[in-house]
Amino acid sequence: MNIEEFREFCLSLPEVTEGFPFGEQTLVFKVAGKLFALTDIDAFESVNLKCEPIRAIQLREEYEEIIPGYHMNKKHWNTVATSGRIEDSFFKELVFDSYQLVVAGMPKKDQLRINSLL
């Protein structure tokens, strides 16, 4: 997956916005104002994604392309390499899981509103 495909997929999800709150190089995607994915736009070598802690450990053990989140809380974030070893469909699943994990942490009315748009 290249950065354009990644960006297009993220923006296809309900209530997603993009921005550069950490500087001109770091592209950030948020759902209803809450961060769920970020990447370096110049290199696009990896993406940081939120992950349920137990699954995060399982993914790191199973895939060498998935490591603890770079510059993030290692318990809740993974860094996923975009080298092409992980199939696009699985990569999109990881992005969507991150998105849904963030939505699940929102107030019920926001969860219902967002989930009704999926």
Overview of the structural elements:
- The protein has a six-stranded antiparallel beta sheet with strand order 1-2-3-4-6-5, with helices on one face.
- The chain is 37% helix and 25% strand.
- The mean pLDDT is 96.
- It has 118 residues and is α+β, with helices and mostly antiparallel strands.
- It is built from four helices and six strands.
- It has helices at residues 3-11, 53-62, 88-104, 108-115, and strands at 16-19, 26-31, 34-40, 46-50, 66-68, 77-81.
- The longest helix has 17 residues, at 88-104.
Q: H/E element string?
A: HEEEEHEEHH
Biggest sheet architecture: 6 strands, antiparallel
- Total helical segments: 4
Helix content: 25-40%
Q: How much strand?
A: 25-35%
Net shape:
globular
Indicate the topology.
Elements: H1 3-11, E1 16-19, E2 26-31, E3 34-40, E4 46-50, H2 53-62, E5 66-68, E6 77-81, H3 88-104, H4 108-115
Antiparallel strand pairs: 1-2, 2-3, 3-4, 4-6, 5-6
